[in-house]
Amino acid sequence: MSISKAQIKQVRSLQQKKFRDELGLFVAEGDKCVEELQKGFELLYLYREGENATRAEIEQMSGLKTPQGTIAVFRKPVLPLAPSLEERAGREILLVLDGVQNPGNLGTIIRTCDWFGVHDIVCSRDTADCYNPKVVQATMGALVRVRVHYANLPEWLATQQCPLYGTLLDGKDMYEVLQSEAGHAVIIMGNEGNGISEEVRKFVTHPIRIPSYPKGTETSESLNVSIATAIVLAEFRRGEK
After folding, report:
1. Strand 206-209 to strand 185-190: parallel, antiparallel, or no bridges (unpaired)?
2. C-alpha to C-alpha distance for 85 and 207, rounded to whole angstroms
3. What is the DSSP letter of 131?
4. 143: Cβ–Cβ under 8 A, 6 or more apart, which residues?
5. Which residues are within 8 A (CB) of 20 and not within 5 positions of it... i.e. 6 or more apart?
6. How far apart are the C-alpha atoms of 70 and 35, rounded to whole Å?
7. CB under 8 Å to 85, separation ≥6 — which residues?
8. 69 and 145, same domain (yes or no)
């Protein structure tokens, strides 16, 4: 069975957000990633080198410098509106991303949330698209278990009644704050270069920071946002009994 030029063109077009939104589709590559995504997304097309596609066709459809030989097209899900934590049981965390624009960072954050049992992420409109192929690859299938919502953050944050933690340079030592806190929490992480925006910062009720060591010595200006997210989530979960 040969693949038409139109099919190749359509798969290749999914590298661009415009066509992902227009067609309601996204693409994933590699056996492991595709296998995981099949657990939660509707698979429409599957192309494998040596089975139903040639190496040349895979290379034309792929967005990778070194194609892995398997390309799948999935239907994007229709998610409910960004959730609230008020009626959930236990010590639930909801992550908010304000202007995180690097696809690799977003993908790593989604995968990290999967590890720490964070099931929902609410993103600002200018955060990277979670169905960007680079994001999808970096999640390693975690998109099946972590729902990513996009919203007007100030409007959404104004409806939240639980503590709103935000990572700020002038925040309190995270290790002191999180040891004494319990219950639901919304954790806000900001843009790679500028941090949390002014319009979102005013909603933060619990400003926190990750301290550097040794105290008072010169260090890097900041942490990568995906690494910072992992540190905060790990500390928050450590306090659970």
Report:
1. unpaired
2. 19
3. T
4. 37, 40, 41, 110, 130, 136
5. 14, 26, 76, 129, 131
6. 10
7. 92, 94, 160, 162, 184, 185, 186
8. no
| Side chain identity, residue 62 | S
Nearest to 69 by CA among 114, 28, 37: 28
Q: What is the pLDDT of residues 145-180, one digit of tens each?
A: 999 999 999 999 998 888 899 999 888 988 888 755
Angle, in degrees to the nearest 10, between helices 225-238 and 103-115: 10
Q: Which of 106, 179, 178, 185 is nearest to 146 (CA)?
A: 106
Mean pLDDT, rounded, for 203-227? 84
Q: For residue 190, what are its two tokens?
A: 């900001």
- Segments forming the whole domain that contains residue 149: 93-238
- Among the listed residues 113, 101, 131, the one whose alpha carbon sits nearest the alpha carbon of residue 224: 101
Lowest-pLDDT range, 51-60, 83-92, 111-120, 141-150?
83-92
In sequence order, the β-bridge partners of residue 147 are 120
Last residue of some domain: 48, 75, 102?
A: 75
CA distance 114 to 191: 21
For the segment 181-206, the average pLDDT, to the nearest whole number, is 88
Structural domain contains residue 81? no
